[in-house]
Amino acid sequence: MSPKKLVEVGAADTALALRVPHYWMAVQGRSTTDAGVAAASDWTKSLSEFIRQKNAELSGKDLGWFINMCQGEEKPEDVFGDNLPRLRKLKAKYDPQNVWSRGVAIAPLHE
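== Berberine/berberine-like domain-containing protein ==
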């Protein structure tokens, strides 16, 4: 897909707030030993943070995280950006008991 298509959709039109040109890559670390698991995790986190910093330098703002690449420690604010309040209202309407709460979970906004 052309990056031009990405920016044709407004940031508030979908849950995906990341609607500016950016670098994107999938990083996976693997190990066959317990000691290697921590090293692989540290490596993937540091590489992801490097890409995040480069995107911030190029765009002039922190672009946060792409939901499909999150490891589970990311904050919902950094994933959904300005869309989070709207998504929290939808969560309260369609999942008020917070059944779907794995990964980067959105807390329902009960008004």
